[in-house]
Give the backbone structure.
Amino acid sequence: MTTQSRGFLRDNSLSLAFGALFLLTLVGQALSGLADYNAQQVAQGLATVSLGDYVTSSTFGVDVMENWQSEYLQFFLFIYATVWLIQLGSTESKPVGEEGKESDEDQKLGRHTEPSSPVWAKVGGWRTALYSRSLGTLMGVLFLLTWAASAVAGWAAYNSEQLADREDPVSWLGYLGEADFWNRSFQNWQSEMLAVGSMAVFSVYLRQRGSAESKPVGESHAATGSSG
Amino acid sequence: MSSATARPLVLVIGGALVLLAAGCASAEQPQVERVATVFEDPSADASTRCDLLLPTAREQLEQDEQSSCVEAINSLPLDGGDVTGIEVWGGDAQVRLGQDTVFLSKTPGGWRVAAAACTPRTERPYDCQLEAS
């Protein structure tokens, strides 16, 4: 496997492409959301708002955060689940028999580190312990932060709707007990769990030639963890 | 990740966001209170009170009473009283007075009354005698 750099753009084409797609779709959400919001405002005889006002509103905020929190929850659960759980034949799984944290030799730790190993993998102690959990930890922290943000933005948006419907607003703790908060959370979570489960199963039997997410076309269904 | 690490982070971020939201809302409270108290003041000029109505609320009032707002507004049970509570969320607000509850909406020209003479109902929206269509 070659590790020679071929230039920044080619070496980072995947992240750059999805970064650009993220920005484009976020702009699309802002524009379409603004149009939808202003249509509702006009229907209620109220004034329309500018794009700047809309993207700083709780309505836009909750719509963005409720999606981000579910994505980070998905990755948090998937990263930790694939330490212990197996899907025979799937590219999303380790091979059968390798459940668990694996040996230091397999993980290139301790006396098995290599010159090119990351610094915090070589130093040992709490740094290596933390680094060994850094990916899942970051996803978990990002999930909690974005879930908290969606709870606050959702609370503000919910209370605005309450007043528009001539009902009393609720406290933040009260909002955490409202169906609106949990409906938003569960509707996002179910799609993420479906996506992971689908990918785990589909990758057993289906192929996409050349994709890192697929087994080689001619690979057997029982081969687990291979890709390319 | 330990809960001992996560919980303080959530509380700090959540608290900061709550304070931000509260700060933005509190800046609007003086204007909301002024509009509501002037509207609910029976001694205030009828034309001024009518100008504080959302256009659609004014239209609904005139349609229901079959008269101009200036003539109809004094017949409404807008009993006012001291302000006991103010809630501002985005472009919507609620002012609770001793004898009434008023709902307001924000327009380019400022806050305007969207509903008044409102009576609370258990687990249902307020019943408002004056309401924007």
Notes: The interface with chain B takes residues 44-47, 49, 57-59, 133, 136-137, 140-141, 144-145, 148-149, 151-153, 155-157, 159-160, 162-169, 172 of chain A (CB under 8 Å). Chain A has two domains: 1-56, 68-228.
